[in-house]
User: Which sequence fits this backbone?
């Protein structure tokens, strides 16, 4: 069944009745879903970006550039795709990609990281154009990728325990609200409720003093440096994480809601927007898996109008990116235990789904456990990080021992 396309006069001032119709398409359910999906990517993922930037010794300007690039271009991607195809294709950036980068930023210079981001976006673009997306995902078993991802994020999630011990009032309230919401308020994402409750209790019980003010920086082009090591240890695994943990779930959510997503264009434009974002300091700007799941779901209103949830989400995160220079000092003033608490809650869903996919079947049990353990170890060798070794060992075992 064909889907209507947005004509040129939909996107320009004076577009007439069609433009007015777009405004009428917005419903309260669209707005609620858009706000929920954007909040998910503006809380935990933003915290992890700051952690990765601190690990790499980034300057304030480089950190602000990273925040601006991923949120501005990610939001722009979502708005353009949703308006073009009238499908809730929601844009953002890869939270799993950021979690991976937190393990490697200290091993490369800033220009080398920018070069790796560019190559990652180029890989995604070429894969989208060639139609190799499905073939690549099939070559590396999804169980191995999921197990590697589980080992990667497990280190963040287990920090919930010492964080709750360090801040019992805040952590306890967040944990209790998470479980209560999981049981009684299933319409609302438990992670989002826990984060909101944690913020409220923190503001009531703690006196926060914002860190030093950061001067406003105009977005500027960042010069890349390309290396083979960056290609193998950053660009390739980053591209695979984006494709497997953002593109695949996002496309799957759209198809399960009976949409007909233009898969090649979604992947190709995710690569193109990621390349643009990389020149401004960000690692990606792509279809966001979990955000698309929320926007495409039945809670987003009538199926024909759900694309507006993606538009609302895109507008919110664009504003977040533009004002990152004001928001980052507040985030930096948060206690470290609270930051660990937010990051842990933000990745609970990722850990759960990764373990479920990686170990639910016996087909690649040995490969999955190898990928999980090697990644969880955090040991790097030959300047290659543990997640990459986990992916390599898991894939080799899957294609030899367990073939």
Assistant:
């Amino acid at each position: 069944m064909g889907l209507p396309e947005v004509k040129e006069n939909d996107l320009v001032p004076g577009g007439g009745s069609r433009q007015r119709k777009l405004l009428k398409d917005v419903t309260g359910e669209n707005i609620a879903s858009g706000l929920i999906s954007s909040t998910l990517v503006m809380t935990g993922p933003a915290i992890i970006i700051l952690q990765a930037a601190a690990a790499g010794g980034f300057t304030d300007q480089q950190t602000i550039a990273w925040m601006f690039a991923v949120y501005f271009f990610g939001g722009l991607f979502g708005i353009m795709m949703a308006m073009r195809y009238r499908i809730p294709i929601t844009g953002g950036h890869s939270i799993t990609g950021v979690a991976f980068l937190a393990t490697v930023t200290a091993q490369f210079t800033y220009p080398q990281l920018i070069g790796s981001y560019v190559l990652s976006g180029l890989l995604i673009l070429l894969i989208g154009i060639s139609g190799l997306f499905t073939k690549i995902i099939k070559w590396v078993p999804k169980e191995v990728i999921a197990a590697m991802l589980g080992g990667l994020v497990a280190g963040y999630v287990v920090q919930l325990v010492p964080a709750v011990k360090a801040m019992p009032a805040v952590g306890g309230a967040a944990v209790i609200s998470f479980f209560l919401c999981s049981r009684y308020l299933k319409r609302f994402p438990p992670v989002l409720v826990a984060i909101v409750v944690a913020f409220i209790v923190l503001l009531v019980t703690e006196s926060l003093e914002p860190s030093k003010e950061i001067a406003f920086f105009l977005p500027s082009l960042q010069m890349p440096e390309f290396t083979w090591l960056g290609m193998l240890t950053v660009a390739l695994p980053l591209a695979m994480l984006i494709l497997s943990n953002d593109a695949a779930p996002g496309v799957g959510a759209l198809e399960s809601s009976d949409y007909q997503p233009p898969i090649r264009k979604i992947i190709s434009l995710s690569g193109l927007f990621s390349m643009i974002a990389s020149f401004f300091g960000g690692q990606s700007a792509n279809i966001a898996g979990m955000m698309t799941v929320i926007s495409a779901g039945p809670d987003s209103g009538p199926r024909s109008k759900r694309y507006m949830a993606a538009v609302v989400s895109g507008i919110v995160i664009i504003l977040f990116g533009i004002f990152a220079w004001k928001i980052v000092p507040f985030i930096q003033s948060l206690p470290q235990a609270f930051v660990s608490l937010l990051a842990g809650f933000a990745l609970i869903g990722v850990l759960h789904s990764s373990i479920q996919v990686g170990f639910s079947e016996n087909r690649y049990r040995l490969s999955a456990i190898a990928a999980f353990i090697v990644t969880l170890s955090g040991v790097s060798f030959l300047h290659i990080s543990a997640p990459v070794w986990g992916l390599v060992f898991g894939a080799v075992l899957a294609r030899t021992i367990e073939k």
Summary: The first helix runs from residue 17 to 24. The beta strands are 91-92, 286-287. Residues 1-15 have pLDDT under 50 and may be disordered. DSSP finds 20 helices and two strands in the chain.
